[in-house]
Request: fold
Amino acid sequence: MTVTNIRPNMDNWQDRVDLAAAFRWTVRLNMHEAVANHFSFAINDEGTKFLMNPNQMHFSRIKASDLITVDANDPASMEGPNAPDPTAWGLHGGVHRHVRHARCAMHVHSPYATALASLADSTLPPVDQNCCTFFNRYIVDDHYGGLAFEEEGERCASLFSDPKKKVMIMGNHGILIIGETVAETFNRMFYFERACQTYILALQTGKPLRVISDEVAEKTAQELESYPEQDARHLAELKAILDEEGSNYAS
Reply:
């Protein structure tokens, strides 16, 4: 059973537990990158105050109690021993400052999504059901400007103008996924990587692709969007596995 006892100064405990589980499973899925990349979750109504992983702590070690609190509107967040990574402040601060519907944001350099982001054409055609999930629901950023310090973070955040589009393919960089909850965002990140894997492997055959029609792709995307509780159940199962293994993620 997931530990839910709230420790002193550990508000938003269940959100912390969910984030910690997401970090642990991102490692298992080989979607992490050493001590880089970041996940965040907004904890105030404005969305500007958020939880995120400590600076350069490996995802496989992160516990719920390790998560730091950052205020996107307070530059003092970058001072002191618990200051986040400067690129985390830049990218996630920009998103939480300007994208109100982005309660959760997950940025990774996962292998297949980053391979897609490295192609001259980084679009993801609907070649299977997972790819259909993202039909007309992603942004391609073709203007990589270096590390995601504050200016680059602000630029990336400005691209989320369409609430329907919750995936950013960051050209020459990686991906940025947003959502309302940790479960929704992690589930979206998981399936986007799977969709990219299928597409990249299909390209490697050198044979023609069987591309699904726009009409069927959109129909499938809508059906998947309305599929009941799949994201919450996905994360619940992952936490159950960690619990059965005696993981300390929820401590």
